[in-house]
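Many introductory courses stop at the sequence. We go one step further.
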Amino acid sequence: MTTALYLEHYLDSLEHLPIELQRNFTLMRDLDARAQGLMKEIDKLADDYLKNLKKELPDKKKEQLMHIQSLFNKAKEYGDDKVQLAIQTYELVDKHIRRLDSDLARFEAEIQDKALNSSRIQEETVNASKKGRKKLKEKEKRKKGIAGASSEDETKAARKKQKKGGSVTSSASTGVVGSGATVDSSNIGHPADVLDMPVDPNEPTYCLCHQVSYGEMIGCDNPDCPIEWFHFSCVGLTTKPKGKWFCPKCTLDRKKK
């Protein structure tokens, strides 16, 4: 049940309360006025009785005392009725207070249940999201592991070919160029499909461009070359050259010597 419904039902139950309270207070005031009037009359009769105590006959005295006693009894009845009305008024108000407390307790319990359900749903959603991310990370790790192993195998195979002699390519043919060739590294061009390829951070890089192996590559014949392998396009080669070939850096070093 919503807050508005609780409030609406409670206000409906209070609709007749002011009228009932006003009626009880009016009756209590009327009973109090009657009791006060009787007490004044009793005081007057008591004064007269005391003034004429020695003059009146015993029968007359007895009659006056009985009359005063009856007035006392009547005033006591008015007082008892007023007390009963006060108790009824208290119980009437207390009944509505108890109902209000009960409605508030039920409303708070409903709010707590909704909060618990919302928290449980949120927790389940978070757990499901965490599991999904964990599975996705595990899948990505497996893919990276497979790609890294494949790249490492290709690199090892290329190096084995280099040790056996000659130049190597990463996926096709190899070639050598005559010594003395120079290339401007600022004019290096790369195929668009190669630049768009995702790069494995674990895969080694080569050439002046510091990229992974692709296409036709040539090895520098200087055994101390720090780079070793170069892409054909990066060093200006289009066909398989003849003779020994040295990279631009090693060519400059040889000229200086």
